[in-house]
Amino acid sequence: MTRARVLLLTAALGPLDYRVPQGSEAPLGSVVIAPLGPRRIGGVVWEDESFGAPDPVGDNRLRNLYEIVPVPPIAAPLRRLVEWTSDYYLSPPGSVLRMLLPGVAFADARRPIVEYRATGELPARMTPQRTVALGKIGARQGTVRELAKLADVSEAVIRGLVHVGALEAVSASADQPCPEPDPAFAPPDLSAEQTAAAAQLRAAVAAARFETLLLDGVTGSGKTEVYMEAIAAAVDAGRQALVLLPEIALTEPMLTRFAARFGCEPVAWHSGLRSTERRRAWHAIASGEARIVVGARSALFLPYARLGVIVVDEAHETSFKQEDGVHYHARDVAVMRGYFEGLPVILASATPALESLAQVEAGRYRHIQLPARFGGATLPDLAAIDMRQDPPDRGRWLAPPLVDALADRLEKGEQSLLFLNRRGFAPLTLCRTCGHRIQCPNCTAWMVEHRLVHRLACHHCGHVMPPPRLCPECEDEDSLVACGPGVERVADEVALRFPEARTAIVTSDTLWSPARAAEFVANVEQGLVDIIIGTQLVTKGYHFPNLTLVGVVDADLGLDGGDLRASERTFQQIAQVAGRAGRGVKPGEVLIQTRVPDAPVMAALVAGDRDGFYAAEAAARRAAGAPPYGRFAALVISSEDIEVARGVAQRLGAKAPVADGLAVYGPAPAPLAMLRGRHRFRLLLHAPRSFDLQGTIRAWVDSIDWPAKARLAIDVDPYSFV
Ligand SMILES: Nc1ncnc2c1ncn2[C@@H]1O[C@H](COP(=O)(O)OP(=O)(O)OP(=O)(O)O)[C@@H](O)[C@H]1O
Ligand SMILES: [Zn+2]
């Protein structure tokens, strides 16, 4: 009889033993469906010796596996990555496994789906909407939902077109062939510096060995062009390439850019995909047919058949850190994947994380630099506007020098960008009469006014309500006032000052789909926008040659809050957004509104002294034992019942581990004391780099009993301290 130990797709259990039905085989890594009580559940056949090698279950108690799923087995290096991730981030292995095997992995790729395509017949009644829709669909084929998305119309319009015979149903196999990228399609003419950098990357891919390379080039130096050479090398070698991006909004422009370089779009992977697209993508990735994959961090764990290189673009971005479920950092896990699979990992950034630079210094990462912009474009001039000396008019947010600069660009027909990392109209609504502030009922957070949609919204839990007319506290009428600016409010000021200017507000509210992102890019490129007002979403990736002015509306915003990376993040964010200016022939100017122009980070930005800033920051971190020279981990205990949460936190606190060099802070109410209706208490651990934090935490957490109503979230190497 053959048995199989299976790691199931559930957080609650370790591996379980099963019997392999007669006539079937289930070698290590096989994807299977197994019985679990009355349920059917997916899983992967695993080594007996993993996860503490639990004792085997007696033959007589084994249940039969239901099915061996006909997809390629999960390879050993990826199984090791699952174990490592589970171990390092203190997450159940079943939760990690789910990232490899989303539901679509179990959907039969060969089962046909009904798709639709144009028949060439035009409906008798042609509305303008139908004309546009058919134009956009062209020769493409897809489900009703996909075509609706493609044509930017409702599904009803598509169904209407089917009804009148303009579209016909076809049975499509879900594993439609992926187009083959052609590395020789349109290679760029690289500059001498770029050529040297690209040669190093190509050689690393050809060597097919683990190595981490930090591609550190100023904004506009052509990092993307250069790492595409590494991808070309991987494709040439018959391998797959993965590019991780920090935001979904960046994927669409990147797909277009790849299409220009390789002759076809790569395969995209992110949470915005339709389930049919997702199914197609997953199976193409697992079979090796998807040669280039561009995706968000969730693309990292997929079972690539023949991965040859991983690129992490904008590698300094903290959005690579997942803040729920498995709290992993995609940049760090990418490096581990490279290690287990024996392949190069390229981290690209104009403002590398201190962590990455420390690895370079320690000799563990190779440093590849591109110190100049491509094509003779120069880096922009940065200057600070001291808001204490040059304040904006009352109730306004733009200081006179910035207003003048905007007027100047409008006159010259050049584009400007105003950056403020705050969505909505105003971050706080306050009663003038009684001082009441409108707070989210579920979170320790203010409700943010979104005037464009007439709503107050909580940015933590998504709770929305109409803006009240009466103060909920004193019931005074029309006493509520908006405090502070968000991008919408800055846009109002721009409209007031420059009624003729064409503006675009760019936030996750306005660029919620890849299609909207693509539309925004096209509008700016065609010169249909004069002033962009945006959040961090516009700080990176974009290349608008006619954009010559960047205004940072509130440079001090990120410095509040006492986050250990506050200065570093401020530096990166402002350097990145500054990098959008002057990328063409015309030089760029950057004006930074601040109340602390003498703060080291502002002074370094204005002086263009990146090395000095990083050196000072590194010294300060080293002295404080902060990352990357020391380590943190956070334990957040939450419950709907505050007493339960407090009780567990206190019992845990009473058993806090004691060790040389280890400091345990708390328990204390977390800064975000309530989130989604749950009360939160936090314990923070601080230890030297070499300390076994994971082992310590594991033993500690096991030392108390956990009531069912309390939940524990563990965050190793936290980036968010709320
Ligand atoms: N060798 C080249 N030939 C033609 N165009 C190039 C070349 N190198 C760079 N470019 C162009 O210069 C612009 C900037 O390059 P790219 O976007 O690759 O820079 P980057 O370093 O990734 O920038 P950022 O970090 O600011 O996003 C792009 O429009 C790119 O196509
Ligand atoms: Zn809330």
Give the topology, please.
Layout: E1 3-8, E2 16-19, E3 31-36, E4 39-45, E5 67-68, H1 76-88, H2 93-100, E6 112-118, H3 128-137, H4 144-151, H5 155-163, E7 167-173, H6 192-207, E8 211-217, H7 223-236, E9 240-244, H8 251-262, E10 267-269, H9 275-287, E11 292-295, E12 307-313, H10 330-341, E13 344-349, H11 354-361, E14 365-370, E15 381-386, H12 400-412, E16 415-419, E17 428-431, E18 448-450, E19 455-457, E20 464-465, E21 480-483, H13 487-497, E22 503-506, H14 514-525, E23 531-534, E24 547-552, H15 566-578, E25 589-594, H16 600-607, H17 610-624, E26 630-639, H18 642-654, E27 663-675, E28 678-688, H19 693-702, E29 711-716
Helix pairs in contact: 1-2, 1-10, 3-4, 4-5, 6-7, 15-16
Bound molecules: adenosine-5'-triphosphate (ATP) and zinc ion.
